[in-house]
Amino acid sequence: MKKKCLKIATLAHTIYKRCECCNRVKDIYFKMSVLDAAEANYLVGDLDLCKTCGQNLGDILTIRVSTENVLTDFKFETT
């Protein structure tokens, strides 16, 4: 069984700092979490990625990434 040890999350707000992939100072859109290979439960490390690097790594690893965090449906529930 293949485990997902690399996960890419979209940040709610971009951060202006150095991308850890291309080493350029840009807006950071993604954070890639690296989990342990044996169990895929424990965080080993993470990488801050710009838009271009995050999308390229998502394509390489076949992980769906998006730069939009728009909530399209919102409902109030009363109990």
Question: Largest sheet, order of strands side by side?
Answer: 1-2-3
C-alpha Rg (nearest Å): 15 Å
Instruction: Label the overall shape.
Output: globular
- Contiguous low-pLDDT stretches (5 residues minimum) are none
Q: Give the class from helix and strand content and strand pairing.
A: mainly beta
Number of continuous helical runs: 1
Biggest sheet details: 3 strands, antiparallel
Looking at how many chains there are and whether they match, the oligomeric state comes to single chain
What is the helix/strand order?
EEEH
End-to-end Cα distance, whole Å, is 41 Å
Keywords:
single chain, 79 residues, mainly beta, three-stranded antiparallel β-sheet, 1 helix, globular
Secondary structure layout plus pairing:
Blueprint: E1 6-18, E2 25-35, E3 43-50, H1 51-60
Antiparallel strand pairs: 1-2, 2-3
Notes on the structure:
The protein is mainly beta. 13% of the residues lie in helices and 41% in strands. The protein has a 3-stranded antiparallel sheet with strand order 1-2-3, with helices on one face. A hairpin with a 7-residue loop joins strand 2 and strand 3 (43-50). It is globular and about 50 Å long. The mean pLDDT is 85.
